[in-house]
Write a structure and sequence with these properties.
The chain is an alpha/beta fold. The protein has 11 helices and 11 strands. The chain folds into 2 domains: 2-95 and 285-305, Rossmann fold (3-Layer(aba) Sandwich), CATH 3.40.50.720; 99-277, NAD(P)-binding Rossmann-like Domain (Rossmann fold), CATH 3.40.50.720. It has helices at 11-18, 35-41, 57-61, 81-87, 99-115, 117-125, 155-166, 189-195, 215-220, 238-247, 286-305; strands at 2-6, 26-30, 47-50, 68-71, 90-92, 147-151, 170-174, 198-201, 225-229, 250-255, 275-277.
């Protein structure tokens, strides 16, 4: 079975996927930066392993043998699902494989915002570690004693909430529904915005969630609140977020995702000293890859055997 894996892989990962020949898979790695090479490789692909670069209708039409688009991760908003459906191509994701990594980076971003990690790092590297602005003193904080509002309560919040509780935070959550097995308070969106010292987004991007944190919602946030987003950039109205951070209405933001990716150097968020950023790598650990490859290989086996696929979403 021919698998096209579109990702810029380090040598260890390249060696790992070449070794999948023992599983009956011929895996071809293709850089996410090479559009022409990608399109020329698609005609021979039975399976596409997809991470970030969008899978467009054009790409799907270039792949007459394609039977499965396997998302290495959870969100499938970067896949043209309608075209895949018309072609009868299965689309699967792998919920849970990256949850621990995402939960840990979420916590890291919260702490980096509270402790001004980036600012202190910059000054220390410049030999000015004992000359930081005195006005920072009053803004340095701790997780303990704060109310953290989780938007959504899927796999990542379920890992994150107990950690935050152990650190002394109060947890509230909102979403499309409450969960009977979750013992944290379920609140309305308006109540979460008004109460939370830290708002952390953990919902997929789609109908009903695009622009979830719009200009009105940003304005409704508690003064001095922190926003963390490791889900999808389209959940937030970036212009409104920039204005609230620049005015001091919000204390800080920790962002792993952006409305347009890869984010350009001119993104106005990057000019703000109270913003901590990373380039959509919350999921990215070696352990995540190992768990993900297990699922991806198993779905290839099931596809070949005509068995029901794991985590089919379309």
């Amino acid at each position: 079975m021919n698998v096209l894996f579109r990702f810029d892989s380090a040598s260890w990962l390249a060696d790992r996927v070449v070794g999948l020949a023992s599983e009956g898979l011929s895996v071809r790695l293709c850089s996410e930066q090479e559009e022409s090479g990608y399109l020329s490789a698609l005609p021979e692909a039975d399976v596409l392993w997809h991470i970030l670069r969008p899978v467009t209708a054009e790409a799907i039409e270039c792949a007459p043998k394609l039977k499965l688009i396997q998302k290495i991760g959870v969100g499938v908003n970067t896949i043209d699902l309608e075209t895949a459906k018309k072609r009868g191509i299965a689309v699967c994701n792998m919920p849970g494989t990256n949850s621990r990594a995402v939960a840990e980076l979420t916590l890291l971003l919260m702490l980096a915002c509270l402790r001004r990690t980036v600012g202190f790092d910059t000054l220390t590297r410049a030999g000015q570690g004992w000359s930081w602005p005195l006005e920072w003193q009053g803004g340095l904080g701790e997780i303990g004693g704060r109310t953290v509002g989780l938007v959504g309560f899927g796999a990542v919040p379920r890992l994150l909430a107990p950690i935050l509780t152990a650190m002394g935070a109060e947890i509230i959550y909102t979403g499309r529904r409450s969960y009977p097995d979750v013992h944290f308070p379920f609140v309305t969106k308006d109540e979460l915005l008004a109460r939370a010292d830290i708002v952390s987004l953990h919902v997929p991007l789609g109908e009903g969630t695009h622009g979830w944190l719009d200009a009105a919602s940003v304005a409704a946030l508690k003064p001095g609140a922190i926003v963390v987003n490791v889900a999808r950039g389209g959940l937030i109205a970036e212009a409104a977020l920039v204005a609230a951070l620049a005015s001091g209405h919000l204390a800080a933001a920790g962002l792993d995702v952006f409305a347009t990716e890869p984010a350009a150097a001119g993104n106005p968020l990057f000019a703000l000293p109270n913003v901590v950023v990373s380039p959509h790598i919350a999921w990215l650990t070696r352990a995540t890859f190992e768990r993900s490859l297990t699922v991806a290989v198993e779905n290839c086996r099931r596809l070949k055997a005509g068995e029901e696929l794991l985590h089919r979403v379309a």
